[in-house]
Design brief:
Helices cover 38% and strands 29% of the residues. It has 260 residues and is α+β, with helices and mostly antiparallel strands. The N terminus is likely disordered.
């Protein structure tokens, strides 16, 4: 009360004091306001950063989910394509009883020369059963356990398959050769000289083959030449199956001698 009265009565004398005080306090207030604005701006900035990070995390999770779903769709498409190919193959060789199997591992080389499938003796699989995929012959079962089996492909260096040319009925031997396969083919030998076999002729499994059912497409012949012995001819065979990738196969569930 006293201060108010004094301020009123001596306002004219206190004017300079107020002016000096104002000159001192105003910059301090401005500074305080600026500091407050600075920290408010920083807090707003940090909040915006947190919001952006949260939004980025949300978008990243959504993108990961979309990518995962897309991969599933692509995988489903490939599996559907595989099933269609197997179905077509099954229809082509409808006379043979068959069961489908999935490839679960292979040799360390680039080709499926020997590989493991997820069907075994529990599924009725036995050594000697023929294996198909793609457009024709893959190989033969060489070992069967309870839940898996080993397949030796026709491209393996130890493989020999008795074949026959559909156009001429002449017989031949298809030999595996992994080195040649890097060029896209394997060997065809023991062709009768003068048989008239030409590039592109189909080779199928022969009736005289001791292990393979007849009439299964093996591949297509090319580069036929007379052997140094001048008695036989030989050439290359491009397999009907892509041995760089095998996902699913069909096994003929009876050995050849069980059908004939």
């Amino acid at each position: 009360m006293v201060l108010l009265v004094a301020s009123y009565r001596f306002s004219d004398k206190l004017g300079p004091v107020k002016t000096v005080a104002g000159d001192l306090i105003t910059p301090m207030q401005v500074g305080i306001n600026e500091v407050g604005s600075y920290f408010t701006a920083k807090l707003d900035y940090l909040k915006n950063v947190d919001d952006l990070l949260a939004k980025n995390k949300e978008l990243t999770e959504k993108l990961d989910k979309v990518n995962y779903e897309n991969k599933l769709l692509i995988q489903g498409k490939y599996e559907l394509d595989d099933f269609r190919k197997l179905y077509n193959l099954d229809q082509t060789y409808a006379d043979y009883p068959k069961v489908a199997a999935r490839v679960i591992s292979k040799d360390t080389n680039n080709w499926y020369s020997n590989f493991k499938i997820d069907k075994g003796t529990n599924d009725g699989i036995k050594p000697g059963m023929n294996v198909m995929a793609g457009n024709g012959l893959v190989g033969i079962i060489i070992k069967a356990d309870h839940n898996n089996s080993i397949v030796r492909s026709i491209i393996d260096d130890s493989s020999n398959v008795r074949g026959m040319f559909l156009d001429t009925s002449d017989t031949c031997t298809v030999k595996g050769n992994l080195k040649l396969l890097d060029e896209g083919h394997i060997e065809v030998t023991d062709i009768k000289k003068g048989s008239g076999v030409k590039d592109g002729y189909e080779v199928v499994t022969s009736y005289v083959s001791p292990k393979f059912h007849p009439g299964i497409l093996i591949g297509y012949v090319s580069n036929i030449k007379v052997d140094p012995s001048n008695m036989t001819e030989s050439g290359y065979l491009t397999p009907a199956v892509d041995f760089s990738k095998l996902d699913m196969v069909l096994i003929i569930t009876r050995e050849k001698e069980e059908l004939y």
